[in-house]
Amino acid sequence: MASLNLIISLGFIVITAWLLFKKYHPHAVLLVSGMAMLVVAYLLGHHLPTLTIPTGNFGFDLFSYIKESFIETNGGVGLMIMAIGGFVAYIDHIGASNTLVHVAMKPLGLFRARPYIAAALVIPIGQILFVAIPSAAGLSLLLMASLFPILTNLGVSKLSAASVITATTAMGIGPASAITASATDIIGMDTVGFFVGHQIPLVIPLSISMMITYYFVNRYFDKKHPEEVEDVKTDETKAKAPLVYALIPILPILLLIVFSDLFNLFATPITLDTTTAMLVSLFIAMCFELIRTKSLKTVYDSMKTFWNGMGNIFKTVVTLIIAADIFAKGLISLGFIDSLIDVSQHLGFGAIGISIVMTVLIFLASMLMGSGNAAFFAFGPLVPKIASQLGVKSTSIILPMQLSASMGRTVSPVAGVIIAVSEVAGVTTMAIVKRNLIPLTVALIIMLCYLFI
Question: What is the C-alpha separation between 391 and 272, in angstroms, rounded?
Fold first, then answer.
């Protein structure tokens, strides 16, 4: 049965990939493929995802999955992405993005002659921020609002800038990370101890390897496809707003860091999520505008830009994330994950072999489903049992597994972070994935060699 499930799942994956390659509308392809897999899973008698309010009829339940995906996405990551999209549109409208570029160009001008070094340096900086802001899509869009225009004005192509910004979320580490919390709960280990003693020593060499590989990969692709760098801005940018406006694009990042659980700077803990930080920053920006324009009507009218920005992100990004969620539900319902696990357990490998297989399987599953959390949450709970059977420490298996989950997400064309960044940058998801695939594959190989050789 496991073999049949795997064959059917792979068949749907191949058909979906072919349709996407032929440039069929991705929203429709993923949605219809996901629904078709749910139908097949139902006919085969598989366990289907649980609905909050089932209709009592599978035909209607099929559409309830879409409804509930809308509710869950719009109430969580979807709202966050829309709020960031609206904020990005607003700060561009009032000239804050332009002013940040103008201010940043003076100290960073020396990188004009070495734009790929500037791009590579984004990776460790973003990785540090990712520890405090553990939302992949959230952090990437914040960096798109602040760092992306700076990079393009230094001479970095849009694709190169977008690729390194998504790379900052390739390793979900730190106490605030959902995958880290799940991993430490599974093996019964202190989160901070796991972060300091296991994650940091491994992530440092991986980050260095990614900086090097991205430097050469992006330079190669830009030379191979010069048409992709034609719109790079290399002129001297003049500020369109007061210099103090340069603070506005980075204000959400500052708020999230200051009020992060990672630092606990206040006696009474204050928890600030990304969406709230965006709304606070928006109203601060509106206050700046009121002082500058001295026109309440002008400031109120400027809110249209924010709402339009949210709407544009919803119709392009959020709807695609929902379609990808249905696709992932279909794969899981067909027993794709369980089949992969069953196959890996019958290969007869030892502790190192099983660890490598599980790590690679999670990488591939995350790549296919677009969710590192979904892939890890499916595989992770098996670790204690596997470790006890093989007589090894759980940490030696779970560490590469949890890192490969977020790595796989970074090379997934249906991942929310890739979709969101591609929309803002004005490039395709596959173009970003093409840039990310080699560096992340190299990092995966280095990680396996570092841990098991």
Answer: 42
Gyration radius of the chain over CA positions: 22
- Close Cβ partners of 430 (under 8 Å, ≥ 6 residues apart): 20, 413
Nearest-angstrom CA–CA distance, 161 and 435: 10
Nearest Cα neighbor of 285 from 238, 237, 252, 239 is: 252
For 125-150, the pLDDT digits (tens) are: 999 888 878 788 888 988 998 889 98
Identify which of 239, 310, 302 has the alpha carbon closest to the alpha carbon of residue 278: 310
Exposed / middle / buried, residue 113 (Cβ in 10 Å: 0-12, 13-18, 19+): exposed
Cα torsion through 123, 125, 131, 137, rounded to 10: -60
Q: Which two tokens stand for residue 302?
A: 């400027």
**pTM, to two decimals:** 0.79
* Cβ-contact 99, 139 below 8 angstroms: no
Say how far residue 281 (Cα) sits from the centre of its chain. Answer: 22
**What is the Cα–Cα distance from 21 to 104, expressed in whole angstroms?**
39
Cβ-contact 168, 440 below 8 angstroms: no
Which residues touch 175 (CB under 8 Å, ≥6 apart)?
A: 181, 191, 192, 195, 261, 262
Element (H, E) at 149: helix 148-153
Which of 351-360, 363-372, 403-412 has the highest mean predicted lDDT (pLDDT)?
403-412
Pairwise CA distance, residues 161 & 295, whole Å: 37
Amino acid at 118: A
Say if residues 187 and 395 touch (Cβ distance below 8 Å): yes
